[in-house]
């Protein structure tokens, strides 16, 4: 094979570049850089959720106010809570929330909401007023009056704390009438609220309650009616009005039923309208209807022993002794319901509790359960024997059981 020894010419002549082609290439490179750095950078990543605009807190407040004006208090509460989630530093929303919670008897939540407002501003008179009102309504009279006095100190020309503290003093008086001066405090503070602003819901409510406590039932009806005319969606106002109609000195039972039913419609979870309705129908001798409402009260609050006592008494009046015994035994011995709810026993004492023990003993005697009936009779005579009616009923248990024993 023959190989040529000629060297390869590395200095071969280069082709000249085409200027037009170079110009086009530069343009394409520039376009690529622009697309990569500008256009693609503005395109969101694929498959990520599209962000939604956040609602302004004011829109939730507007919704809450609209719902409140329509009487939808539970929904208004939810709207205020949403407003607080968006803007947790607005004390006004906590105050509005606290007031609505009080209207629906959710006192612990109301106290918490008012306290949160005070964390934002420790000198907020309305927050102190609402916290004190809720504390008093829940039975904490000492802290309730302390909070309300602080509200008055911060804003002495505001009628609301005077109205609220009047009601708390009234509750304290109702709980223990022997406390010196407490009813006078209730009266004087309600008058102070009236002097500052007579035509408000809070003033009419406080004045109505004071008039109820002192037995001026006609004036109480007028004040409660005036408060309802301002706001017809507050359950407690109808409860108070119905209570006045139910008093023996008034005895407007049809009007009482109407008011209690309205209170029940506005706040179905509150057992008190059902309790009062059961008492009205009991007074009228309509025991089956009374029992229905008493049963509903137990469902609404299955831990309250007094509601079982009320139901047991009604069963006894309706000659359903076994059911009377079942309910009254639960509160006299204490125990657990069929669904596992624990009910505390009520120690024997005068008043309503003594009535439960008497009815229980009589039901036992009439059902032939005499050993336990005799124990109840003995306990009544030993512990609350300074009452003629109690002594008579304790003796009646013995008489019934003696008759049963002699028949055998």
Major beta sheet, specifics?
Answer: 2 strands, antiparallel
Multimerization status: single chain
Report the portion of residues in β strands. Answer: under 5%
The helicity comes to over 70%
Q: Measure the end-to-end span.
A: 145 Å
Question: Taking Cα atoms only, what radius of gyration do you get, to the nearest Å?
Answer: 37 Å
Overall pLDDT: 89
Give the SSE order as H and E letters.
HHHHHHHHHHHHHHHHHEEHHH
Biggest sheet, spatial arrangement of strands: 1-2
How many helices does DSSP assign? 20
Structural class: mainly alpha
Number of strands: 2
Instruction: Give the CA-based shape.
Output: globular
Describe, in plain words, how this protein is organized in 3D.
The chain has 408 residues and is an all-alpha fold. The chain is 71% helix and 1% strand. The chain has 20 helices and 2 strands. The chain has helices at 19-42, 57-69, 73-86, 91-103, 107-120, 125-137, 141-154, 159-175, 182-196, 201-213, 217-230, 235-246, 253-266, 272-283, 287-300, 305-317, 321-333, 352-366, 370-383, 388-407, and strands at 335-336, 342-343. Strands 1-2 form a two-stranded antiparallel ribbon. α3 packs antiparallel against α4 (91-103), α15 packs antiparallel against α16 and α18 packs parallel to α20 (388-407). The protein is globular. The model is unreliable at 1-15 (pLDDT under 50).
């Amino acid at each position: 094979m023959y190989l040529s020894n000629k060297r390869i010419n590395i200095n071969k002549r280069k082709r000249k570049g085409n200027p037009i082609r170079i110009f086009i290439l530069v343009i394409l490179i520039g376009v690529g850089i622009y697309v990569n750095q500008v256009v693609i950078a503005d395109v969101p990543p694929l498959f990520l959720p599209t962000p939604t605009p956040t609602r302004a807190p004011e829109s939730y407040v507007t919704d809450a106010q609209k719902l409140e004006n329509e009487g939808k208090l539970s929904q208004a509460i939810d709207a205020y809570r949403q407003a607080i989630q968006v803007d947790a530093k607005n004390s006004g929303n906590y105050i509005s929330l606290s007031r609505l919670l009080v209207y629906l008897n959710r006192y612990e939540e109301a106290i918490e909401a008012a306290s949160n407002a005070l964390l934002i501003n420790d000198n907020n008179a309305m927050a102190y007023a609402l916290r004190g009102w809720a504390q008093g309504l829940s039975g904490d009279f000492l802290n309730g009056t302390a909070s309300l006095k602080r509200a008055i100190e911060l804003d002495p020309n505001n009628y609301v704390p005077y109205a609220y503290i009047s009601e708390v003093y009234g509750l304290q008086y109702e709980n223990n009438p022997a406390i010196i001066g407490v009813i006078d405090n209730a009266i004087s503070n309600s008058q102070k609220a009236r002097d500052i602003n007579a035509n408000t819901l809070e003033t009419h409510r406080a004045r109505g309650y004071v008039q109820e406590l002192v037995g001026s039932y006609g004036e109480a009806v007028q004040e409660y009616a005036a408060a309802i005319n301002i706001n017809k969606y507050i359950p407690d106002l109808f409860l108070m009005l119905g209570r006045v109609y139910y008093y023996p000195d008034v005895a407007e039972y049809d009007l009482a039923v109407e008011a209690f039913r309205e209170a029940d419609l506005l706040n179905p979870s509150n057992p008190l309208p059902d309790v009062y309705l059961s008492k009205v129908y009991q007074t009228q001798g309509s025991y089956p209807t009374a029992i229905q409402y008493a049963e509903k009260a137990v469902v609404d609050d299955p831990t309250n022993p007094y509601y079982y006592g009320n139901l047991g008494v009604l069963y006894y009046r309706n000659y359903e002794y076994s059911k009377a015994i079942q309910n009254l035994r639960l509160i006299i011995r204490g125990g657990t319901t069929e669904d596992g709810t624990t009910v505390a026993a009520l120690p024997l004492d005068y008043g309503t509790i003594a009535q439960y023990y008497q009815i229980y003993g009589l039901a036992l005697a009439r059902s032939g359960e005499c050993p336990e009936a005799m124990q109840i009779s003995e306990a009544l005579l030993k512990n609350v024997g300074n009452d003629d009616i109690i002594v008579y009923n304790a003796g009646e248990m013995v008489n019934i059981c003696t008759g049963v024993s002699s028949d055998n």
